[in-house]
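Recap quiz, item 2
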Amino acid sequence: MSLKDAPNGLQEAAGLAGRSRRDFLRAATGASVGRTLFPLAPGTARGAARKTKTVVVTFGGGARDQETFMPEGHANIPHLLHELIPRSTFFTQVVNRGILGHYVANASLATGAYETFNNFASVPPPTPTVFEYFRKDLNRPAADVWVVAPSAGFQRIGQSSHRRYGAGWGANVVLPKRLLAAALPMGSIAEYERLLHDNYETPLYAPEDAGGDAEVHRIAEMLNLSVSDFVAHAGTLTSPDELSVYIARRLMRQYAPSLIWITLHDIDIAHAGAFSLYVEAIRRCDRLCAELWNTTQTEPEYAGKTMMLILPDFGRDSDEDAGGNGFQHHRTGDALSRTTWMAALGAGIRENIFVDRPAETIDLTPTLGALLGFATPFVRGKPLEELF
Amino acid sequence: MLPGQLTPEQFAGYPPGARRIAAAHIELLRKLPLGFVPLLLREVVTYDWNFPAERREVDSQFTYLESLSAPALEQIMAGFAGLTLSPRLANLDWAGAPAVFSEELSAHLWSTRQIDAFRAAAKQLVDRVHAASPPEPLPARRLAMVVVGRGVTENTQPLFQKLRPHGTYYADLRAPDGVRLLLGAVAARARKHPIPFAHWYIDGAAGEKPPDPAVTCISYGALEPVRAAVLGKLRAMIVAGKGPEALRTALAGMKPADLGLASEGDAEIIDRFRVRILTEGSGAQIFSTTFVQWTARELLRRAQPLTVLARFAPRQSERSMYEMIADGGKSAAFDPAGSLIDADMGAWYTWLNHRRLPEAEQSAFLAWFEGHGSAIAIGPAVEPNREHRGPADMAQVLAALA
Ligand SMILES: [Zn+2]
């Protein structure tokens, strides 16, 4: 930390970022300017909620406006721009006021409260998660809720330490890289290293050895993965996010979970400082979001009754803040690093609507509770009423 | 311990110059709040290996704070004094190891959502210090030159898009010996203004021969053994099961001698700078493009040089990165096309960082796509947002920036 960190007015810059993003999106997607919103009475969406499937996609490694929704980023997100956003209610300003580390930020998304634990510690969130609220209140079985997580640090995101929830009410958490590491024959790790790289926070960080881990084997068994098929398929994939999406689609076919949460992470290669690799990862992420959406439209258990929510956990540092190094990190806490967006689309969600008022990342979980009909008593965020 | 209880003995572990500075200002240090004084000491503790510009910054902070009346000092420190700190922080050896405290303070401010308040207080102080001690006028305008695209045979992407509104774009720059001309320009400036640490040449590969003894060279190729030593130490820690925080702490503690560099005086300052690039710069050990961009950024921020020439080279491919992590990188494949995109962004960042230095309105900047005849020149005598039609040569462009 340096005294030279130059702060911006958060509110002001977030407002500017939201305006330019919104205006550009309207031009790019052809949404009518000034379309009026008529919020329905809360609860109208709930009739069908119990049959609804929900897919949440978070980018655990934020992307900035410049590389996504600003004109110069247009080419990086063709699927979002032309296929998904026109079907969405789109929130142009979603602010994260918490700690900008990926595990703690994604845990905060799931709990609906800004968590303050050490990002690098292997701890469960203290506040109940959306997975526990969902399962306990709606009395759902364990196989109905899954998290596909990007790195070993996320292992405990599925279940809080809260005494009224916690034990027995969490989500199944699958770490695709650990599954793959466990499936690989001895001596072939190097060949698959591109899929196993655990996280990008430090220059070198190898995945933990998964050998002997009973949880990994339990999950592999639940997924009914044939080791040889899995390893052979992994050989055709180029990135960890592709591996995660492969696992998510397999889960959807096998268990048709009502709530599936997938955190993509390739974009965070930005920490290595190579701009071209960061942009390439955004393009991949854009394509994978469309593939997941298409899966929900073609799988019989999901078609016509799936709601999908897509949001980055936060942004990245702005070029203008001398305390950072632009796209590389999310260390300054400046307005752009805290400001992102959310697309909600699918069953029960109005299409082609832009919401310009600021929302917060912690609004996600109370929104899911209100939409799906479960209580979220410990959240700090508020339901996004534009989705009702 | 609180700042009021500071004694000179607590600086015993500091290098000699730092110890002298801290002891000379102990009266002031005792009056400063705990949320601030270790941050100042953090800048003091590296004093012996700091560049002259950084030493001036530290000196001017002391001069400014000591010039204030008691109420004025209290007012400028109010933002720091108002931070709520934990007893754990107060119990750290913040005088002996201010860098450790600073990391812990940062985590605490984030988790207690006081980071914005801290940043506001810091901004106010830095602005006041700069206003109270304007920098000496420069003997010549600053010049930064960035060379991109080595190894690229074909390119269809438009380059320098972010820079073009600020300068004149040359679409047909004929410069078969452009690198030699730019190195010559650096050498000429170094001879004309023989100031220590003022003229630098950064290269993403082995680099050309230094153009003049007065030019400091720092190249990815020459640092290969140091990079290998850093990566070797990291790999050993990973095998031992250490997490990201332990790795970061170990990196921060590495010294030139740990990595096979041994030098004294000015050479030690440069070696310490090299080691910090490789230990603090995320990705600088892995990708040569990151190395060049980060080195230029740190050099501009810390040394505030008069002249910088930064030449990018192809970095290894992403696939090679994983192979390197797995086996130490026995076979490297390169990615010239991706490196060009990295370097284009690196040129933009170098200009932004250049523009943050004193007398920015007078400074000159060049980015050149070597071997492909396009360039952008930015300077007080160069027309912004313009395209130069027809051929030009490098001497002509350099003259426009002089
Ligand atoms: Zn990150």
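Strands of chain B lie at 143-148, 168-170, 173-174, 199-203, 216-219, 307-311, 364-369, 374-378, 386-388, 392-393.
Residues A 61, 102, 268, 271, 330 surround zinc ion (CB under 6 Å).
End of item.
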